[in-house]
Amino acid sequence: DGGITQSPKYLFRKEGQNVTLSCEQNLNHDAMYWYRQDPGQGLRLIYYSQIVNDFQKGDIAEGYSVSREKKESFPLTVTSAQKNPTAFYLCASSMITESYEQYFGPGTRLTVT
Amino acid sequence: DQQVKQNSPSLSVQEGRISILNCDYTNSMFDYFLWYKKYPAEGPTFLISISSIKDKNEDGRFTVFLNKSAKHLSLHIVPSQPGDSAVYFCAAYNNTDKLIFGTGTRLQVFP
What we know:
The complex is a heterodimer of chains A (113) and B (111).
Chain A: E1 4-7, E2 10-13, E3 19-25, E4 31-37, E5 43-51, E6 54-57, E7 64-66, E8 76-78, E9 87-94, E10 103-104, E11 108-112
Parallel strand pairs in A: 2-11
Antiparallel strand pairs in A: 1-3, 3-8, 4-5, 4-9, 5-6, 7-8, 9-10, 9-11
Chain B: E1 4-5, E2 10-14, E3 19-25, E4 32-38, E5 45-51, E6 56-59, E7 62-67, E8 72-77, E9 86-93, E10 99-101, E11 105-110
Parallel strand pairs in B: 2-11
Antiparallel strand pairs in B: 1-3, 3-8, 4-5, 4-9, 6-7, 7-8, 9-10, 9-11
C-alpha cells in the first residue's frame, strides 16, 4: 500500500526543547513538502525538497530545519527558536513533473507547553 | 498578501441540495487550480482540479468552474451528502513548484 506516513499522531513537548517530526513516503515521489495548519488559516509551506540533499525554504521557515538524506524521508525539526510551535503539521509529496498534485500524510499535532 | 482567498469560512447546506464553494485569486499567472477536502485531524485529500485552459471540469457529483476574467473558481457538489461535511481548501499553482492554499471553507451538510 503506497502512501505517506507521519509519526507520531500527537506529540507533546516542553517549551525550549527541539522536536523532530517524521515523514516517510513509499510513492517513489521526488518532491516532499512540510506545511503547517493553524485554526482559521490555510496550509502554509515551511520547507520543500525536490531532490535528495537539497531543500528550499517556504514561506514560514524560521525556527524550523529539515534534512533530505533519503528520497523516502523528510524529517522536520521544530527548534526552540520557533515562537509558536503548537500547530498541526502536514507532510506531502509529489512527482517533480506534477508538483501541483500533492499527496498528504495524516498529520502530526504538536503541542508545546 | 493572500493570493488565494476563500471568503466564506463556513457553509451549511441541506442534504440533497447543491453546495457551492467559492475561491478568488489575485495572481493571473496561476495555471492550475485544485480543491482538497480535509476531515479533522487528517491530511487533505485531492478532490478535483482544473487547468487554466479550461472553464469546467466534472467528476461525478463534483464540478469545478473557472472564470479567468474574474479570477474566480467555484466547486459545486450536487447532490450534497452528509459525508461531504469537511473543510474544503482551494489551491493554485503557477509553476514555482509551490501550491498556494486558501484559508478553507467548512461545509456542513445536514439531514
